[in-house]
Amino acid sequence: MAFDRPIPIQSTEPSKRLNLLLTCGSWRQDSPILQLPRLLDPFGIRSLTAKNGVEAVQMIETSAIHIAIVDLAIPLEEGSIDKRPGGDRVLQLLRRLDPRPPTIVIRPRQTSARENARSLARSLHEGAFTVVDRPAMIETLLDALQRVLKKHYANRWPEQNWNQ
Q1: pTM reported for the whole predicted model
Q2: Residue 114 in domain
Q3: What is the pLDDT of residue 1?
Q4: DSSP 67-86
Q5: Does some domain include residue 13?
Q6: I want to staple 102 with a disulfide (CB 3.0 to 4.6 A). Which of 45, 115, 129, 156 is the partner?
Q7: How far apart are CA 141 and CA 54, in angstroms?
Q8: What is the DSSP letter of 42?
Q9: What is the rounded CA–CA span in Å between residue 75 and residue 98?
């Protein structure tokens, strides 16, 4: 990724970081998504990881979110009896933010062409920048992040809410 702003290695000033909300329905050790925080940190991208909808809401309420990767398969709550996915609710909350962060949606494989079309339409209606099917490959996610930076931030970090 090409970035116009150098990231200081050590500084007494507050760190200027881009906050990435990263949700994942499968936190297996070999999941490609788990590689993102390690890969993106040197570029000044702070990954805020959430395993469920409640954690995602807490991060949205306490930090400025500049970009979001939302896995539609995340549960609403950890260990809850309610097994409905929480990703749609996280998308709805992100859509109400001002400014609304660009969102990359990861969706489970669909069983039919009709369900595929419905899922895509729902994600786009909720404001998704792009939709990626599972299994999400690291290269696909990095490409989507680069496109978000180019389109929404002109290859520069967001200028507001730096230190949140």
Answers
A1: 0.80
A2: yes
A3: 37
A4: EEEEETT-BSSTT-S---BS
A5: no
A6: 129
A7: 23
A8: G
A9: 25
Backbone φ and ψ for 148, nearest 5 degrees, come out as -60, -45
pLDDT of residue 90: 93
More confident: 149 or 161: 149
Query: Exposed, middle or buried: residue 121 (CB in 10 Å: 0-12, 13-18, 19+)?
Result: exposed
In a domain, 2, yes or no: no
Domain encompassing residue 43? 36-153
Contact (CB, 8 A) for 58 and 93: no
Q: Is the pLDDT of residue 156 over 80?
A: no
Count of structural domains within the chain: 1
- Which CATH number belongs to the domain containing residue 91 in this structure? 3.40.50.2300
As a whole number of angstroms, the distance between CA 149 and CA 127 comes to 16
Amino acid in position 61: E
CA distances from 116 to 23, 70, 89, 106 (A): 21, 17, 19, 13
Report the sign of the C-alpha dihedral through residues 151, 68, 128, 60, in that order: negative
Place of tokens 């995340």: 74
pLDDT in tens, 37-81: 999 999 889 999 998 999 999 999 999 999 999 999 888 887 665
